[in-house]
Amino acid sequence: xxxxxxxxxxxxxxxxxxxxxxxxxxxxxxxxxxxxxxxxxxxxxxxxxxxxxxxxxxxxxxxxxxxxxxxxxxxxxxxxxxxxxxxxxxxxxxxxxxxxxxxxxxxxxxxxxxxxxxxxxxxxxxxxxxxxxxxxxxxxxxxxxxxxxxxxxxxxxxxxxxxxxxxxxxxxxxxxxxxxxxxxxxxxxxxxxxxxxxxxxxxxxxxxxxxxxxxxxxxxxxxxxxxxxxxxxxxxxxxxxxxxxxxxxxxxxxxxxxxxxxxxxxxxxxxxxxxxxxxxxxxxxxxxxxxxxxxxxxxxxxxxxxxxxxxxxxxxxxxxxxxxxxxxxxxxxxxxxxxxxxxxxxxxxxxxxxxxxxxxxxxxxxx
Length: 367
Description:
Helix content is 31%, strand content 25%. With 367 residues, it is of the alpha/beta class.
């Protein structure tokens, strides 16, 4: 779940504003070059204030104008921006990118907002199917009609039984592959959106250098937890961006933490024995990424001591350990080291190597 969706959720948590006074813009289809991918969202209120983005800034003003009409009529619309020609587009946007972008404009569904809130709170993933193109055979559904899946079962459904039966096989594939797709069938055109669970970052150590790591992670919308046995260091005053602060020692970690495949951990307690116990715990957990601060020799010594004590680690376990932590960007300050760490975690979670995009062959996105 990205940060802008979390911000939209929080918007509706504050005094529960009237959703009829806002318009939600969602990118549902991209062909060719685009700054944002399907699932990108922007919320526009009655005063023209915008939250989120659907492009790099070139479409927002035009979307704002079209949103004002949806705000007045309440009618959901799909609008297409086509900039594939070499001449300036008919919208006079002069974007420079060559692509087709389709955007859904609608009054926000509070069922959808509440569903996303539950996904974030429970750290689950979900699937939302939205009708974005109709055919004559579909005479009982309007653009924007939805089916929402929670734990593999429809909890909100605005489609007929025949449409549901037709969609289910593709919904299963999207859930398994964890990748959104556009589907055209005899009933119409549908955006099958996979909404991933939020990344969970656990930071072991509440030193001064952990603060920019937590802040950078939170700026991406990640769920961030700080763990330290020193209450004087691990507190909200020092870590206002943290979602969770846990005061505990390494030997009690099993009782305190829930770790899944979307969890990354950074070990930076600056205490050799603490790090030694923490690394053993994490290597035996279902952690996707483990980063250890400090020289390579330090981590090698820790692993060697555990082997001498009879502990064995498989290649699969060791492959998720990154030490020294971070990408090689020449980081030499707490803030730049935090950037290096978060960038490495992001690259691991998206199965990328963190290299220069100018050397990449093909699209910069995994479509």
